[in-house]
Amino acid sequence: MGYDFLHRLRVIESSAFIAAPLAGLTLSQFGADVIRVDTIGGGIDYGRMPRMPQPGGKGRSLYWTALNKGKRSVAIDLRKPEGRELMQALATAPGPDAGVLLTNIGTPWLAHEVLARRRADMISCTIQGNGDGSTAVDYTVNCATGYPAITGGGSVARPVNHVMPGWDIACAYQAAFAVVAAVGHRRSTGTGAELKLALSDMAFTMLSHLGVLAEAELLQQERPSIGNHLYGAFGRDFGTADGGRIMVAAISAGQWKALVACCGIADAVVAVQQSMGLDFADEAQRFDGRDAIAALVEPWFAARGQADAEAALEQHKVCWGRYSTVGELLARDRRVTLDNPVFERMVTPGIGEHLSAGSAVRAPAMQRSPTEPAALLGTHTDEVLWEVLGLDAGAVGRLHDAGTVAGPERDPSVATA
Amino acid sequence: MGYDFLHRLRVIESSAFIAAPLAGLTLSQFGADVIRVDTIGGGIDYGRMPRMPQPGGKGRSLYWTALNKGKRSVAIDLRKPEGRELMQALATAPGPDAGVLLTNIGTPWLAHEVLARRRADMISCTIQGNGDGSTAVDYTVNCATGYPAITGGGSVARPVNHVMPGWDIACAYQAAFAVVAAVGHRRSTGTGAELKLALSDMAFTMLSHLGVLAEAELLQQERPSIGNHLYGAFGRDFGTADGGRIMVAAISAGQWKALVACCGIADAVVAVQQSMGLDFADEAQRFDGRDAIAALVEPWFAARGQADAEAALEQHKVCWGRYSTVGELLARDRRVTLDNPVFERMVTPGIGEHLSAGSAVRAPAMQRSPTEPAALLGTHTDEVLWEVLGLDAGAVGRLHDAGTVAGPERDPSVATA
């Protein structure tokens, strides 16, 4: 779980892909009781790559199980009216710490006004592609932001997509924030809230918040496409003698002084400043002189191995980072080990034991609980129907018999079709 | 502002760069009274590019003013003990809706234990580079995640940095979420919270939440470097006859059917599936056959202009997006106009009138208020010292005379030095 800030606030989640599940995970990491309702057999991304190797492609997804740890799982046949009725009943069940729905599945029978008829102070948060309800995913939003046209030296004609699903991630945390703010507001005022968040709005509003829109409108200029140089100050990647690759950033005055001292280029910097008529104490002029500065820094890295370079960078308190693959990160970076309290070991059913993260937030004075692994679909069906809806064993048994609900035996990774 | 979910919760912000200011902006968009305290003349990123053209490089920053709209501004000489005392007093002032500090400036005199001595139920949220307090920025964290090694067809030896500051953005919303959760917890229990959030933890925990760490650990495999292809299903960018560029994604079964129908490639797809022994109904097998699928889709785009292609994609409900620069986005995309309620026109002092965004969240039943532009530094010094600390005109005047506080006349963009 993580920390008990939210006191078992109950959140019913009906979701797929990254943004909504990650929002639910975030809520669970702060103590919410997040109950994920899936259709029997799983939703459209239950088998998304990468999957565990298993005949018939039925191995569990490392992606899905990672995003859906820390939650309880209920399996319901959501095509049936009785299944939809159960889902609505779970979402709108009474209690001050209940009545919250998190979803990215814009289906009419889960619309806010439908649920608010059953529970007037309902809080629903719906993540959408576009604000008009039309579909969009991270890739089809990002292409419009201008970023691919300036990533990796690209252009509109030869754009470079990012791989990190950045807009999905932003949406997730924005949604979790909105839900918790609305819950606090409901506690004070008694009123619920309908919250909608479109992936494209997330991206385009961010272009405003970073000044990118105003730059285009007022200065009529596009950000330059400058490869791995950072914008607005000095920073770039450099290769070491033994094939390593290191990123350095000299954004603040202190970072710049540290880099100059570490590379022993103070005199050369003075000479370059004089010849170019620039003052590199000003970050914007460092940016103007970036190629000349890089030419001074390059030989320093090229003359030594990665370990020596890193030791010197550390000693001089340069702001730097090592490029690595994920395997190298796991093998060599102490920040991604149990030495870091945000990590733990987890045993996920159908997958095995592996390193896993809790909340990135550290709250030193609070107890940090371990995270429950992603259960097989339907593992908590019976207990949730009893706890939340008061259905006794007989009623739950009849729902199983009718095929309206299911337990973990119907999870695709264990079901014998 | 946006929406009044947080009822003027008072947050004192002492920050620079993206993550902490964006967290403060997010809180302000939901109704918090965010009071930004800057040292007189501004902090280290007050002049960060892009800036308005003005002699001496003193034009206001479009970046800084974008991240710091919706807040009040107090200017204090934070090098002086009396200035630090004022800052501590502001952060720890009494009241159930006060006592919240948001910062990324890890200075001892703003440490949680120092503030908690003055206010036992203090909530502080400190954004760090690394969990040990050492420096890191988005660029020096991202290089370690493995993403640059698989972006744009790159490798560890030839990495491609992203341009979107994705980890900073994630940190911002995660921090805003944590603050609001801690405020709710304090209302219930009376206890404060020390919250710490490291940029590198944000990135590395995300690798866990997306299944990337488990993949490397359990399957011993790295994600392939596949350019603009999306991972795990089918999606890529395509060029039109007139030089346009369009991203298409066929992740769900419905999106795949729509693409096949739109491009009229049903028969060819059957033939390719047979020859490759694949079933493209399975997203993972679409991924395996991505080059063959792309070869079928490519001629369809190459045979028509962008407008015709877009009309057909819309008609068939394909999931698609247009590549654009920021200027093109502003000129041609209705989602980035006043037709979209998340946008508004704003007049920022020293900058002029421009399009600006409020919260990306839509709450249809709540009133949405306009956002205040980023004021000149110190605009609210006097009113905040009166409102929060009860200092009368005489006391405030003496602080001005001693140079301990300042009003907007000392903002670098207007000061005559």
Give a written overview of the molecule.
The structure is a homodimer of 417-residue chains. Helix content of chain A is 38%, strand content 16%. The first copy, chain A, is α/β, with parallel strands linked by helices. The first copy, chain A, has a 7-stranded mixed sheet with strand order 6-5-4-1-2-3-13, sandwiched between helices. In chain A, strands 7-8-9 form a 3-stranded antiparallel sheet. In chain A, helix 2 links the parallel strand 2 and strand 3 (72-76). Chain A is elongated and about 85 Å long. At the A-B interface, helix 1, helix 2, helix 5, helix 6 and strand 6 of A face helix 1, helix 2, helix 5, helix 6 and strand 6 of B. Strand 6 (193-198) of chain A pairs antiparallel with strand 12 (361-362) of chain B, so a sheet runs across the interface.
